[in-house]
Amino acid sequence: MKLYDFHTHTSAISLCCRLSREQVVAALKKEGTDGLVLTNHYAPRHVNLPFEEWLLKYQKEFELTKEAAEKEGLSALFGMEVTIEGRDFLIYGLPSSALFESEKPLFDYTLGELHAFVLKRGGLLIHAHPFRSKGSPVNGALVDGYEINCHPLYGYSFAKEVHELCDGKKLITCGSDYHGDTYKPKCGVYLPDDLQSEEELAAFLKSGQPTLLEHTIVKG
After folding, report:
1. Given Cys at both, which of 4, 88, 108, 218 links 128, Cβ 3.0 to 4.6 Å?
2. pLDDT of 195 over the 80 cut
3. CA 73, CA 95: separation in Å to the nearest integer?
4. At 188, phi and psi to the nearest 5?
5. Torsion angle of C-alpha atoms 196, 198, 49, 11, degrees rounded to 10
6. Sign of torsion over alpha carbons 22, 24, 26, 28
7. Whole-angstrom Cα distance, residue 198 to residue 181?
8. pTM (2 d.p.)
9. CA distance 122 to 4
10. Whole-angstrom Cα distance, residue 216 to residue 136?
11. In angstroms, rounded to a whole number, what is the distance separating the alpha carbons of residues 18 and 10?
12. Do β-strands 212-213 and 188-191 pair in parallel, antiparallel, or remain unpaired?
């Protein structure tokens, strides 16, 4: 099995991230992580071009990150982090071509509409860091699972709360949410060695709860 960080950003799209694609890949390789799902922000405040141009840039950044990863012997899969009404949701299992299949920006969807969009295309929708900043998880009928977010900036991953919430009935994912503003936590999801596509990722996640590597946050 290979360890993938399921929540990563690059500065070309995620304007709050301090790291280029090459720096993110280098950090992953240094810590011994085998791959990443690139989940750049898909939110109004990150759109700094006419929208259709921005979508093309978003897709291109994934392609360039995948190339950078493969040069270092790592794997990369496409994902998204969509913000709706101040909450963040991770999309897994869709190819980058899905960026161009919506009738309006995904951040203009309701959560129910976004979930339907993802399900129709065979993907999964995960509520990112559901307990962060005194937040609360959304209705489980509107998502396929919840994330254990190991970003050290927030001081606590809420892993115990997420496990209790899911109780074997909802998928749990795990990622670093690394932005270059703290140390890099090693964490993620173990995937089969031969997994190569977003479609295969979706099928694997739907087959049962994967093994996670959780990180205990070290407070500064």
Report:
1. 88
2. yes
3. 21
4. 150, -155
5. -60
6. negative
7. 29
8. 0.97
9. 20
10. 21
11. 8
12. antiparallel
DSSP single-letter state for residue 122 = T
What does the CA dihedral 155, 178, 142, 216 come to, rounded to 10 degrees?
A: -40
CB 75 within 8 A of CB 4: yes
Amino acid letter at 202?
A
Write the single-letter amino acid at 218.
Answer: V
Residue whose pair of structure tokens reads 């899905």 in the numeric block: 98
> How far apart are alpha carbons 159 and 163 in whole angstroms?
6
Estimate to the nearest angstrom the gap between the alpha carbon of 202 and the chain centroid. Answer: 13
Task: Quote the tokens at residue 155.
Answer: 């001081």
pLDDT tens, residue by residue, 57-112? 999 999 999 999 999 999 999 999 999 989 999 999 999 999 999 999 999 999 99
Could you give all domains of the chain from N- to C-terminal order, each with its CATH number? 2-213 (3.20.20.140)
Q: What are phi and psi of 165, to 5 degrees?
A: -65, -45
One-letter amino acid of 145: G
